[in-house]
Amino acid sequence: QVQLVESGGGLVQAGGSLRLSCAASGSIFSINAMGWYRQAPGKQRELVARITSGGTTTHADSVKGRFTISRDNAKDTVYLQMNSLKPEDTAVYYCAASMIPRTYWGQGTQVTVSS
User: Fold this and answer.
1) Residue 4: which H helix or E strand, with range?
2) Which of 14, 17, 21, 109 is deepest in the core (most CB within 10 A)?
3) Of 75, 72, 42, which Cα lies nearest the Cα of 55?
4) Spatial separation of the C-alpha atoms in residues 109 and 98, rounded to whole Å
Protein backbone atom coordinates (compact mmCIF):
# COMPACT_ATOMS: atom_id res chain seq x y z
CA GLN A 1 0.00 0.00 0.00
CA VAL A 2 1.14 3.50 -0.87
CA GLN A 3 -0.50 6.77 0.08
CA LEU A 4 0.03 9.88 -2.02
CA VAL A 5 -0.83 13.41 -0.93
CA GLU A 6 -0.60 16.23 -3.47
CA SER A 7 -0.39 19.93 -2.77
CA GLY A 8 0.53 23.16 -4.50
CA GLY A 9 -2.27 23.67 -7.00
CA GLY A 10 -4.13 26.92 -7.41
CA LEU A 11 -5.02 29.81 -9.67
CA VAL A 12 -2.28 31.58 -11.58
CA GLN A 13 -2.09 33.99 -14.50
CA ALA A 14 -0.65 32.90 -17.83
CA GLY A 15 3.12 33.08 -17.73
CA GLY A 16 3.23 32.37 -14.03
CA SER A 17 4.65 29.44 -12.08
CA LEU A 18 3.49 26.82 -9.62
CA ARG A 19 5.20 23.92 -7.89
CA LEU A 20 3.25 20.79 -7.14
CA SER A 21 4.35 18.40 -4.42
CA CYS A 22 3.48 14.74 -3.92
CA ALA A 23 4.39 13.17 -0.59
CA ALA A 24 4.48 9.38 -0.56
CA SER A 25 4.14 7.07 2.42
CA GLY A 26 3.74 3.35 2.95
CA SER A 27 5.57 0.71 0.92
CA ILE A 28 7.57 3.25 -1.04
CA PHE A 29 10.55 0.91 -1.47
CA SER A 30 8.47 -0.99 -4.03
CA ILE A 31 7.81 2.02 -6.25
CA ASN A 32 9.30 1.66 -9.75
CA ALA A 33 8.43 5.14 -10.97
CA MET A 34 6.40 8.17 -10.02
CA GLY A 35 4.63 10.49 -12.35
CA TRP A 36 2.38 13.46 -12.76
CA TYR A 37 -0.74 13.17 -14.92
CA ARG A 38 -3.42 15.69 -15.72
CA GLN A 39 -7.01 15.61 -16.84
CA ALA A 40 -8.83 18.57 -18.30
CA PRO A 41 -12.64 18.66 -18.53
CA GLY A 42 -13.88 16.44 -21.34
CA LYS A 43 -10.41 15.05 -22.04
CA GLN A 44 -8.58 11.86 -21.20
CA ARG A 45 -5.99 11.74 -18.47
CA GLU A 46 -2.52 12.24 -19.91
CA LEU A 47 1.03 11.80 -18.71
CA VAL A 48 2.81 15.06 -17.95
CA ALA A 49 6.12 13.84 -16.52
CA ARG A 50 7.61 10.73 -15.01
CA ILE A 51 10.69 9.85 -12.96
CA THR A 52 11.96 6.32 -12.41
CA SER A 53 13.55 4.91 -9.28
CA GLY A 54 16.87 5.29 -11.11
CA GLY A 55 16.26 8.98 -11.70
CA THR A 56 15.44 8.88 -15.41
CA THR A 57 12.91 11.55 -16.33
CA THR A 58 10.41 11.85 -19.15
CA HIS A 59 8.35 14.92 -20.02
CA ALA A 60 5.46 15.24 -22.44
CA ASP A 61 6.25 17.24 -25.54
CA SER A 62 3.62 19.80 -24.57
CA VAL A 63 5.49 20.71 -21.38
CA LYS A 64 9.14 20.22 -22.34
CA GLY A 65 11.20 23.25 -21.47
CA ARG A 66 8.49 24.56 -19.12
CA PHE A 67 7.87 21.79 -16.56
CA THR A 68 10.42 19.81 -14.58
CA ILE A 69 9.87 16.73 -12.47
CA SER A 70 12.23 16.06 -9.58
CA ARG A 71 12.33 14.20 -6.31
CA ASP A 72 13.71 14.48 -2.80
CA ASN A 73 14.40 10.96 -1.56
CA ALA A 74 14.99 12.15 1.99
CA LYS A 75 11.46 13.53 2.08
CA ASP A 76 9.85 10.81 -0.11
CA THR A 77 8.44 13.64 -2.19
CA VAL A 78 8.18 14.25 -5.91
CA TYR A 79 7.81 17.73 -7.34
CA LEU A 80 6.55 19.23 -10.55
CA GLN A 81 7.90 22.70 -11.19
CA MET A 82 5.67 24.41 -13.73
CA ASN A 83 6.87 27.60 -15.40
CA SER A 84 5.49 29.70 -18.25
CA LEU A 85 2.04 28.32 -17.58
CA LYS A 86 -0.57 28.52 -20.31
CA PRO A 87 -4.38 28.42 -20.14
CA GLU A 88 -4.26 25.01 -21.81
CA ASP A 89 -2.37 23.68 -18.77
CA THR A 90 -5.57 24.05 -16.76
CA ALA A 91 -6.50 20.63 -15.39
CA VAL A 92 -6.63 18.45 -12.33
CA TYR A 93 -3.12 17.15 -11.74
CA TYR A 94 -2.66 13.69 -10.26
CA CYS A 95 0.39 12.07 -8.74
CA ALA A 96 0.88 8.38 -9.46
CA ALA A 97 3.18 5.69 -8.06
CA SER A 98 3.82 2.73 -10.35
CA MET A 99 4.35 -0.61 -8.65
CA ILE A 100 3.79 -4.23 -9.47
CA PRO A 101 0.98 -5.14 -9.83
CA ARG A 102 -0.79 -1.79 -9.67
CA THR A 103 -0.54 1.98 -9.81
CA TYR A 104 -1.56 4.14 -6.89
CA TRP A 105 -3.11 7.58 -7.38
CA GLY A 106 -3.35 10.71 -5.33
CA GLN A 107 -6.57 12.66 -4.90
CA GLY A 108 -5.63 15.32 -7.43
CA THR A 109 -5.00 19.03 -7.21
CA GLN A 110 -6.60 21.69 -9.40
CA VAL A 111 -4.42 23.96 -11.49
CA THR A 112 -6.17 26.86 -13.21
CA VAL A 113 -4.33 29.22 -15.53
CA SER A 114 -6.14 32.41 -16.45
CA SER A 115 -5.46 34.29 -19.67
Assistant:
1) strand 2-7
2) 109
3) 72
4) 19
